[in-house]
Amino acid sequence: MPAAYLTGLLAGRRAKASGVSEAILDIGLYSRGPGSRIFAAAKGALDAGLSIPHEDEALPKQERVQGKHVANYSKALSAEPEVQKKRFSAYTKQKLKPDDLPEHFAEIQAKIKASETVKST
C-alpha cells in the first residue's frame, strides 16, 4: 500500500512537471475494491496535484497508506520471532524494519515532495 501511494505521488509529480493536470483512473474490467492499491496510487497522484475523478470512499485511509497496519502487524508478531522473520523477510533483505515502515514512508514522501525537478525514466 505505501509503495503504491508513493508510486502514484511520483507519477503525479512527473505528470505535473510535464504539463499534465488531469487524469482518468481506468481499472478496466476489474471490480472496484475500495481502499485497494490502485486507489492508493490514485491518492498519491491526487496529492501530487492531479485532478482525477474519484469517490473519496474508494481511497484508502491515511494510516494504511503510511504502512501503520504493517507496523502494527509486525509488532503483534514480535512474540513469535520465527513467524515475524518469515513474514517480513522481504523487508529485512532490504535492511528495513517493518516496525519502522511509517517513518520510512514519511522520509521517502518528503524526498519526493522536496524534489524540484522530477526526472522521468
Question: Can you describe this structure?
Answer:
With 121 residues, this protein is an all-alpha fold. The chain has a single domain, classed as Nucleotidyltransferase, domain 5 (2-Layer Sandwich). Helix content is 55%, strand content 0%. It contains seven helices and no strands. It has helices spanning 2-17, 37-47, 62-65, 68-76, 81-87, 89-93, 101-114. The chain is globular and about 50 Å long. The mean pLDDT is 92.
Write the layout of secondary structure elements.
Blueprint: H1 2-17, H2 37-47, H3 62-65, H4 68-76, H5 81-87, H6 89-93, H7 101-114
Helix pairs in contact: 1-2, 1-7
Distance from first to last alpha carbon: 22 Å
Can you tell me the CATH topology?
A: Nucleotidyltransferase, domain 5
Into which percent range does the helicity of residues fall? 40-55%
User: pLDDT average, as an integer?
Assistant: 92
| Record field, number of beta strands | 0
Strand content: under 5%
* Helix-strand pattern: HHHHHHH
Tally of DSSP helical segments: 7
Q: In total, how many domains does the architecture comprise?
A: 1
- Point out poorly predicted stretches: none
User: Which descriptor suits the 3D outline?
Assistant: globular
Largest sheet: none
SS-derived structural category = mainly alpha
**CATH class call:** Alpha Beta
Provide the gyration radius in Å: 16 Å
CATH architecture: 2-Layer Sandwich
